[in-house]
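Homework help board

Subject: predicted structure for assignment chain

Our instructor gave us this sequence and asked us to write out the predicted structure in token form, then describe one feature. I got the tokens but I'm not sure how to describe them. Can anyone check?
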Amino acid sequence: MPPEKGVKAATFHLLLDTAMALINGDGHIPSVAEVALRCKVSRATAYRYFPSRSALITAVIDSSLGPVRSLSSDDPDGRARVHELFTQTFPRFKEFEPQLRAAAQLSMEQWALERSGQLDEVPYRRGHRIRILEHAIAPLTLKPAMRDRLHKALSVVYGIEPFVILKDIWGLPDREIEGIALWMADALIEAALRQGQAAPRRKRALQDAA
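My token output:
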């Protein structure tokens, strides 16, 4: 947990804000030493707060997506919850796009280094979307296997990855990207609900035929 007040809190936020600005500037992932130099603090001090690039990027993404990660809805309609989540999240993808791209870049870079046995830092781990989506689809009435499938499918369309694909490959504007993401989410929810209801109907049809 980051320090809440005093000199430690001020130093933490100075380092974090500087890292955010560096990433926003040209998209590259700064080293902890680079952030320390820009802040004019010692490397030893910076490493006490952020012992690795992974720790630094974790703090950057926590800051970028904090409100989304703490989003909690009492809406009894699962589809409405998913809509709320997407409409709250995609504007932040636009606002913090360089930081989110940097996190995805670091994750892929470290995967390659880990695979070749050259990774020398604790890897940056992603996965908050699992918990976030679990809360969003909680009200949907689905069998466990179908709920699990929908949960995993939504994790593919909710995140920076579809944003990057639709922007870089298709050249779409942010608003259209959000609309397509919502359309995909709706289609997945509709398919899950339809298939979840199809099995009982087939079973009744077989019973009637017998």
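Reply (TA_rk): Your tokens look well-formed. For the description, you could write something like this. The radius of gyration is 21 Å. That's the kind of observation they're looking for.
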